[in-house]
Amino acid sequence: MAAVTRLFRSSSSSSSSAMFCIRRSLSTAAATELKSQICPPRVDPKGRNVQWVFLGCPGVGKGTYASRLSALLGVPHIATGDLVREELSSSGPLSKQLADIVNQGKLVSDEIIINLLSKRLEVGEAKGESGFILDGFPRTVRQAEILDEVTDIELVVNLKLPENVLLEKCLGRRICSQCGKNFNVASINVKGENGNPDISMAPLLPPSHCVSKLITRSDDTETIVRERLRVYNDKSQPVEDFYRGQGKLLEFDLPGGIPESWPKLLEALNLDENDDKQSATA
Ligand code: ADP
């Protein structure tokens, strides 16, 4: 982790040619050979210090599933979107520049995002964190290449939902401005096309003490979500190809809301939630 932090820092402050000078692979976890059938080995989930990445379109639920897994695996969930929003809500020098970019549905520059990520890793390192689940990073092939230069990502989970569901989910998303929890007021029932199953998702409603404090993300308007989806297809789908080529991509079509999807995702990852309960009570 220390090496990742240091090297990210040197990546973010050096010219792009210098980035290639970064020594490869200082991760403690050896890269796993994951070929066509990707199935992580079944071991005690805690203490594995996994280095995983979550990919997926806006609204797919990367944050929800990555944060649940981070609790299960005992590693930090690091979402670059959250880092950007923290910077936005501060009065720092980047705040205005970031607001303009995010509210157009565009991507922040690789340099800025790597800088924010380096700082977050440094803070984590000081607290003794190791391993991570990255959410929202890498989002360009350039970011994926830089990440590859500094560490070995073991597994990349690609969450998928049809585009009309993604739009409804983004428009229904609400956040409690006090406790920070995410909710969703959308009730989704979409007929499956081309032989795909129907998708239903019940709303995830807030408890009464959050109701009066709900806010909507400024970039969750229909125009901006459509632009974010377009940018994802343009800039981030090539990242899926990048990891598919390395045999690290686990494709996961979400079958519905959290109650249906979570157990299936654990199964796909060869994890058992009871492992966590056992180790938590041990
Ligand atoms: P989404 O719901 O679209 O996946 P996120 O919460 O991950 O959104 O990110 C919000 C915004 O922060 C993005 O639209 C983008 O402007 C910026 N951002 C987050 N991660 C990155 C990244 N890795 N590279 C560039 N911009 C990023």
Automatic annotation (TrEMBL):
<dbReference type="InterPro" id="IPR000850">
    <property type="entry name" value="Adenylat/UMP-CMP_kin"/>
</dbReference>
<dbReference type="GO" id="GO:0005524">
    <property type="term" value="F:ATP binding"/>
</dbReference>
<protein>
    <recommendedName>
        <fullName>adenylate kinase</fullName>
        <ecNumber>2.7.4.3</ecNumber>
    </recommendedName>
</protein>
<dbReference type="Pfam" id="PF00406">
    <property type="entry name" value="ADK"/>
</dbReference>
<dbReference type="InterPro" id="IPR033690">
    <property type="entry name" value="Adenylat_kinase_CS"/>
</dbReference>
<dbReference type="InterPro" id="IPR006259">
    <property type="entry name" value="Adenyl_kin_sub"/>
</dbReference>
<keyword id="KW-0418">Kinase</keyword>
<keyword id="KW-0547">Nucleotide-binding</keyword>
<dbReference type="GO" id="GO:0004017">
    <property type="term" value="F:AMP kinase activity"/>
</dbReference>
<comment type="similarity">
    <text>Belongs to the adenylate kinase family.</text>
</comment>
<dbReference type="InterPro" id="IPR027417">
    <property type="entry name" value="P-loop_NTPase"/>
</dbReference>
<comment type="subunit">
    <text>Monomer.</text>
</comment>
<keyword id="KW-0808">Transferase</keyword>
